[in-house]
Amino acid sequence: MTRSKTPEDTRRRILETAERMFAEHGVFSVSNRQISDEAGLGNNTAVSYHFGSKADLVRAIYLSHREPTELLREKLLDRCAGSTDLRDWLTCLVRPFTDHLTSLGANSWYARFTAQLMTEPKLRELGLVEVGQTALQRTVSDSLHRCLPDLPPAVRAERDEMARTLIVHVCARREPGATDDSAALWNATAVGLVDALAGLYEAPATPRD
Amino acid sequence: MTRSKTPEDTRRRILETAERMFAEHGVFSVSNRQISDEAGLGNNTAVSYHFGSKADLVRAIYLSHREPTELLREKLLDRCAGSTDLRDWLTCLVRPFTDHLTSLGANSWYARFTAQLMTEPKLRELGLVEVGQTALQRTVSDSLHRCLPDLPPAVRAERDEMARTLIVHVCARREPGATDDSAALWNATAVGLVDALAGLYEAPATPRD
């Protein structure tokens, strides 16, 4: 007799399966039917029943990671309150992502999923822009900007985009190597990213017209 | 009567169509049959007849951009010979890509194609590693490293990866905006990248065990 499943079990199963398949094959290569099959659900309409459209499913995967990431960010923010050291705020930018990846261990697909989301031309807005920045993310962003009073706002915005791109894509490339000692991998990755981003943000900007 | 086509016309048409479709939908979402249809070729086997496997096709697209990019790199290298200024070598790293994108004008898909190639976990090796660095790329890389004698080799390798990631993904995000004045867009992008990468490479590295 198979163990009876609650709707919550089924939802979680769909989220995990879809995340892995999207990360591996790209969001548009995978149908809801393939996700249902791979998740071992008899019912082909399970995905749309539980999540609605593919956009809703993508957003649900993203949101399932947001709460644990926000908790990590909150703790780091408590430690950095009032700091005017750029590296502290870069730590608040990088570590919630890498520490969350550490907590996911060897079976994480989240970095690759996020990278796919940033690369898919049609999905970028859908997945992240609608969801918006959280209040804590805004605090990190504002505090980081206060450490860079001389950087023209347009250059600052450009470097914010570079920082996000770098964090997500570097982690996505490392993620397949997160096997036995994922904590060491993600710690080294975070150290390398904070060092590099400190240089990236502090670099003088060539004047432009 | 339709204009008769040489095999060279057909090959070029397949390359352009496949590049755009791969850039838009991801390499694994697009079948050879869909490429043949979209390219308006009657024959469904045209792609495999002209290129072989999908891996061969991906490599052929990449190689079709390599010669013009190498010519741009060669010119820049002539101007920088003997320089010990990091920014000169970063210019040789960034500008061949952005200047080639400028020459492609408003209809370029090459940055997004390359970004897909870097993001697809299965394609990364296949597309670029097998092809290898060119002699000119190696010269740029070696000269750049000589400007950073104090950076531990492992950190230097990490930053090389970050630089490649940043150049390709930043350009991929900007490429849809390459409309009327693509030269201005790519010039501003190159200036911003060289500034940011100078800081990224010169940032002190936190000692690691």
From TrEMBL, chains A, B:
GO terms for molecular function: DNA-binding transcription factor activity; transcription cis-regulatory region binding. The keyword Hydrolase does not apply. Residues 92-174 form the PsrA tetracyclin repressor-like C-terminal domain. InterPro entries: Homeodomain-like_sf, HTH-type_TetR-like_transc_reg, HTH_TetR, PsrA_TetR_C. Residues 14-61 form the HTH tetR-type domain. Keywords: DNA-binding, Transcription, Transcription regulation. It holds the Pfam family TetR_C_30. The keyword DNA-binding applies. Coiled coil: none annotated. PANTHER family: HTH-TYPE TRANSCRIPTIONAL REGULATOR BETI (PTHR30055:SF234), HTH-TYPE TRANSCRIPTIONAL REGULATOR RUTR (PTHR30055). This is TetR family transcriptional regulator. It comes from Lentzea alba.
